[in-house]
Design goal:
With 359 residues, this protein is α/β, with parallel strands linked by helices. Helix content is 23%, strand content 26%. α3 crosses α4 and α4 packs antiparallel against α5. The longest helix has 17 residues.
């Protein structure tokens, strides 16, 4: 019996005006025509045309959607004060930037319009073209809503995540070094994704250590955490890309914990940091996508998946995404011809200079 995919969340249309270098751009992200087809769009262009800006606009829409007030059926619009240098967001010579997205959430479609002003304010409107549009925008700065929105979304080596998204920005990397024991005890669910600092421990490493310690019954396993499945999926990836398995931890200096890899063919174990940057990148990216979205599909945004990767891994990357986590929507920006060519033509988008036109 054929099963329908979970409804989850999808972006189906995106309109951008006067955001950074983009004059005006409108994109459609069509649904897959067949159940087994990937819900994916791969964007290509030369540098400076706006691929990363498209991903950032998706992130801002999905930050806003987390605010409980906005998911209220009676919500129409608010105006908030925000942190960040808005003059770096708004295109030079204009007063405000606009980001409008048509979003499907659990089978219901709505349109969100974000306007970012040079003055340091943001207005958020739902279904802006509806007949019930309010004339006055509510000043909600006293509600601390502005604290839930950040314009600085690429300042941490960790990928960014919230209830609806997982964003692998181009500054990401698996940090070298070992997490300390006190970092394992922090409740990551209470941390909004933009609160991760430059010095935050690798969320990938923390998850692996927690899973290994849970398997040894040293940590209480959360109700929705299936430790055996987590370690099985992890080691499928480690064996595929590094010919080893992660099964042990080692105490390091300063109360830190080191992840060890046992080679499949035998020999002494070695530290996870001993892998190449490409091996660490592809293992951590694929694992985090699987782990963070296996129960709740998200929109996964990836800027330059080819970062640090060997060319032979470029073409198979999209195939692996759809194999391990087929229910997500993927929006990818790339300079790799192999990544671009690895999807069907109707899933490719080539951005050009002329007023944000595309083909």
């Amino acid at each position: 019996m054929t099963m329908e995919r979970p409804a989850g969340i999808k972006i189906r249309r995106l309109r951008i005006k006067d955001y950074k270098g983009i004059d005006e751009l409108e994109l459609n992200f069509p649904q897959p025509t067949m159940l087994d087809d990937p819900d994916i769009m791969v964007m290509g262009s030369r540098n400076g045309v706006g691929k990363t800006s498209v991903l950032e606009c998706c992130v801002l829409l999905l930050q806003v959607l987390v605010i409980p007030k906005i998911n209220n059926p009676e919500f129409v619009s608010i105006r908030v004060k925000i942190q960040g240098e808005t003059d770096l967001i708004v295109r030079a010579g204009t007063d405000n930037a606009q980001i409008e997205g048509e979003i499907d959430l659990e089978g219901h479609t709505s349109t969100l319009l974000i306007e970012i002003f040079n003055s340091g304010a943001m207005s958020i409107t739902k279904n802006p073209h509806g007949k019930d549009q309010l004339q006055d925008i509510i000043d909600a700065s006293s509600d601390n809503i502005g604290d839930l929105i950040s314009l600085d979304i690429s300042f941490t080596p960790n990928p960014l995540l919230n209830k609806y998204l997982l964003y692998f920005h181009s500054f990401r990397m698996v940090q070298t070094g070992n997490p300390q024991l006190n970092e394992l005890l922090k409740n990551e669910k209470n941390q909004s994704f933009y609160r991760f600092t430059k010095d935050a421990a690798s969320i990938f490493k923390l998850q692996i250590i927690r899973s290994l310690m849970s398997k040894a019954e040293l940590f209480e396993t959360p109700a929705n955490e299936q430790t055996e499945d987590t370690l099985l999926k992890l080691n499928e990836l480690v064996e595929r890309y590094a010919n080893g398995r992660i099964e042990k931890l080692r105490q390091s200096e300063n109360n830190a914990v080191e992840i060890r890899i046992n080679p499949v063919d035998g020999g002494p174990s070695f530290t996870f940091d001993g892998l190449s940057s490409g091996q660490k990148e592809i293992i951590s990216t694929l694992f985090l996508i699987w782990h963070q979205t296996r129960n709740n599909p998200k929109i996964v945004l990836i800027d330059e998946p080819e970062l640090h990767l060997n060319p032979e891994w470029h073409q198979g990357f999209v195939w692996m995404l759809n194999k391990i986590a087929p229910d997500n929507q993927y929006i990818i920006a790339t300079h790799s011809e192999d990544v671009f060519a690895s999807v069907d033509k109707n899933r490719r988008l080539l951005l050009h200079d002329s007023a944000g036109s595309n083909s």
